[in-house]
Amino acid sequence: MIVQVNTDSNIEGSSERNQWIEAAVNGALERFGDQVTRVEVHLRDRNSDKKSGSADMDCLLEARIAGLQPLVVDDQAATLEEAVDGAIGKLKRSIESTLGRLGQR
User: Fold this and answer.
1) How far apart are CA 39 and CA 22, in angstroms?
2) Which of 73, 82, 83, 99 would disulfide-bridge 90, Cβ 3.0–4.6 Å?
3) Which domains, ranges and CATH numbers included, belong to the chain?
4) What are the beta bridge partners of residue 68?
């Protein structure tokens, strides 16, 4: 699975953060094997020019599943780490639900 991390101009990208995100995504989705071919991670600070708020960090995940339309989830939180963890949990549940429905056919 390919994991691509993108940030907006208000978030400084770092190789350590990218490695942590890639490891978290791969660890959470490893049970799906080759069914998930690519995950794009989009990180942004929704109100960087203002005071920090309770949920101003945003993580959007787009998963490409072989033969299906992409699944998109997002999560907002006070920190990037919390937003990434929340979005990964949502994505995992969405993939389980989607693949489970396909298996019942």
Assistant:
1) 9
2) 73
3) 2-104 (3.30.160.100)
4) none
Sheet (strand 71-77) strand order:
2-7, 36-45, 57-65, 71-77
Residue 70 CA from chain centroid, whole number = 12
Residue 11's Cα: distance from chain center in Å?
A: 16
Beta carbons of 62 and 70 less than 8 angstroms apart: yes
Residue 26: CB atoms within 10 Å: 13
Tell which residue, 48, 57, 41, 39, has the closest CA to residue 9: 48
How far is residue 84's CA from residue 75's CA, in Å, rounded to a whole number? 7
Separation CA 74–CA 92 (nearest Å): 12
Q: What is the pLDDT of residues 39-70, one digit of tens each?
A: 999 999 887 666 655 678 999 999 999 889 99
The answer to whether the pTM exceeds 0.85 is: yes
